[in-house]
Amino acid sequence: MKKIIFVAAFAALAAVLSACSKSPPTEEPVRAVKVLTVGLDTFQVESEFAGEVRARVEARLAFRVGGKIITRQAELGQHVKSGQVLAQLDPQDYKLAVDAARSQTAAALTNRDLAVAEFKRYKDLREQSFISAAELERREATLKAAQAQLEQAQSQLTTQSNQVGYAMLVATADGVVTAVEAEAGQVVSAGTPVFRMATDGARDAVFAVPEDRLAAMQPGQKMRVKVWPQNTELSGVVREVSASADPVTRTFQVKVALNANQTAPALGATVNVASAASAGAGSQVKQVIKLPTSALRQEGHGTAVWVLDPASMTLRSQAVQITTADGNEVVVAAGLEPGMQVVSAGVHVLAAGQKVTLYQPPHAAK
C-alpha cells in the first residue's frame, strides 16, 4: 500500500515539474532591411553664419542738459520723423535762468547806454579843453567795459534760451525707436541715453566669425544673405570687418552691406550669410561620404549606423562622425569607407548581431 502511495506522489510531482518547465525559446524572425552601398559624393563647402539685420546708422539719443523727464511721447518700435519730439524735461529751472539772464542783459544795456552818454559829454568838454585827455580816456575805457558786459549778458541769455530748447529731445532723422532706456519721472544727467534709434535707409547683415574664418572675410567680397523664414535670398558685399575680437566670445564682427535695390528686410530679422571657405577662391567642391538622416541613430553620446556583414548577413554597430548637413543628408567625416553596406531605414528596431535579409521590393502588378 505504501508503495502505491509513493508511486502516485512521484507521478504527481513529475507532472507539476513538467508543467512548470519553460518551453524552448522561439527563434527571432529574420528582418528584411534596406541597405545602401557607401560611396563618394560631391559636396560644396561653404561657411554659413547666422546673423541679424541692422540699420547702417544707429544712434543713442540723449538730452544735452540734465533734469527730470516729465513726458515721453515715443514708444518702442514707433517710426518717428526728423524733428519729432520724443521726450521732454521739466523746463522750469531753465526758464527761470532765462529770466535772470534777460534781467542781467537789461541792466548791462542800461550801463552801456549811460557810459555812451558820459563819453559823449566828456568828449565835448575835451574839445573845449575843460578836461584833460586822460580823463576822456578813462571814460572811453568805461564805455568799452560796459559794452563788453552787455555782450557777455547777451551771450548768457542766448545760452540759457538754448537750454530751454534742449529740454525737449527730438529725433535727428527719420527712423525706428529700437530701445527705450528711460521713463517719465526719471532724473537723467546730460548725455544719458534715453532712446536708441535705427535710421531709415541702408541695411546691414551683421554676424560674428571665429578667428580661423576671419581670413575668408575681406571688404568688398560678395556674399549671399538668406532671410529666414521667408527663405528669400539677397546679395551684398562685406563692408566692414572688426579689427579686434569680442572680449567675451573671442569672435570678430562682420558687416555685410545689403544691395540697396532689393527690398530691405525688417530690422532684427534673422539671416544666414554664406561665403566661400577661403577668400576669393569661390566655393570648394569636395568628395565626401553622404548618408540619409534615416540611417543615423544615437548610441551613448555619439552617432552610429548599422553596417551589414555580407558573409554572415548580420549587423554590427559602427560609430560615425558627422560634420554638417546637406538637405536631408549628412556629411560623414570618419567611421565609414566606400564599399560598406549601411542600413538606411528602420534602424531603431535592430540589434547588434541580428541576422537580416535584403529587402526586395514587391513586383508591380501586371
Key features of this structure:
366 residues; alpha+beta; conserved putative lor/sdh protein from methanococcus maripaludis s2 fold; Elongation Factor Tu (Ef-tu), domain 3; OB fold (Dihydrolipoamide Acetyltransferase, E2P); six-stranded antiparallel beta barrel; 24% helix; rod-shaped
Q: Can you describe this structure in just a few lines?
A:
The chain has helices spanning 2-20, 92-127, 133-166; strands at 31-33, 35-37, 40-55, 58-62, 67-72, 79-80, 85-89, 168-170, 175-180, 187-188, 193-199, 203-209, 222-227, 232-241, 252-258, 270-276, 284-292, 297-299, 302-309, 314-326, 329-334, 341-343, 356-358. By secondary structure, it is of the alpha+beta class. It has four domains: 31-43 and 285-358, conserved putative lor/sdh protein from methanococcus maripaludis s2 fold (Beta Barrel); 49-55 and 202-283, Efflux pump adaptor protein, beta barrel domain (Elongation Factor Tu (Ef-tu), domain 3, Beta Barrel); 66-90 and 167-198, RNA polymerase II/Efflux pump adaptor protein, barrel-sandwich hybrid domain (OB fold (Dihydrolipoamide Acetyltransferase, E2P)); 92-166, Helix Hairpins (Orthogonal Bundle).
